[in-house]
Amino acid sequence: MNSLFTSIIAATTIIAVSSVSHADCEPIGLDNPYSNDVYGVMEWNGHYYDAGWFHLRRRSVNGGDWSDFGGGISGGGAYTLADPMIVFENELIVGGAFYFAGGLTTPNVCAWDGSSFRQLGEGLNGEVLALVEWNGKIVAGGDFTHNGDGSRQLNHVAVYDLNNVKGNGAWMPLGQGLTNFPSGYGTWKIGELCVLNGELYATGRFQSSGNTTLNGVARFDEKSNQWQPLGSGIPNMSNGNVGTTITAYENEIWLSGWFQSIGGVSAPWMAIWDSSNWRPAPSGPSRHCLTLKVIQGRLHGAGPFPFTLGGTEHDVARLEDDGWVGLGSSNSNWPNDIAESVDGDAIIVGGYFNGFNGEFTGNYLRLECGDIPDDCPADATGDGYVNVSDLLAAIGDWGASNSAADVDGDGVVGVGDILMMIDAWGACE
After folding, report:
1. Superfamily for domain range 378-427
2. Model confidence pLDDT, tens digit, residues 248-279
């Protein structure tokens, strides 16, 4: 026992600092035989869904072939595609650039109930780039100016109100919309939409709404029916700066895009809005993300090598307590979208690639990275605190295996566990 206490005393004099820059992840290809780009991924109702260039396909999670379903999408000419997908009231809502779905006239947006497509009002007169559920309604953003029949001006963002036009459902404006796009840049007019605490947020190339300057990122104020800026927004948008993806995480807004600063704060490629001010995201991003998603309770980012960690470029990364952790890279080009698997054990990845982490997978895969690390692994007793009770648990099980006091996971209770407890001393966050 003297050697035990000698070890503990020695341990208290050491400051242990660890940083993990990559995780071991296994990519499992889902046998998608198509080479066309995948823009949207989703697992829903027992199927994997693939939305992309000239296609909207699915296959059973239990295996089998990928195929068009319900008659497919068509009518977008040389630019036919499906892109964003969300689940709303047990239906799959699909946006993109198409005119027909399942033989129905569905300009650029439709609903799939698992057996057939249906229209969503009059549709929209341009490509839908973003979808989100907001307070029990569907919101779309994209390259459209009016509803599908041209009777209602929308200015690139609209809400689908089931009860607005004689109970038939219709796309309605949100304030004065999002407008004033820099010339010469056609993509990401509306990069993405998200919701935080019941409030709607948007990012993209828009610079204003009516007379209000926004500069690429905005919040919709429902009481005033107006879009409001988040600080001074993204600078130099006329030179190509843009917000590409936005999401809510831990009660804050996270934004990634082609910028080096925002709101007067240096924040290369990614920034956080706390409802009053911008600040830079944790270091790691080395380029813009195409998507930010909360998966298994953790923020994930993906895109064309947006993270350089430990000297290695990663297409997909996860934010942990001590920083970004790389989850791997495609063999060529990049992922466009990620989503959480229904079983919670994997990340669904799709894009413009044919393999991942050195393995041939095709352009649609499950990325299995094991369990998300415990937010407070040093809490051996599970009471929400790292304190004397945890040290006593380690002392009581000293040298044992299969113990909750083996908090560093090396298979035996020892000095490493004591070090970890001391480093994490106090209330779990």
Report:
1. Dockerin domain (1.10.1330.10)
2. 999 999 999 999 999 999 999 999 999 999 99
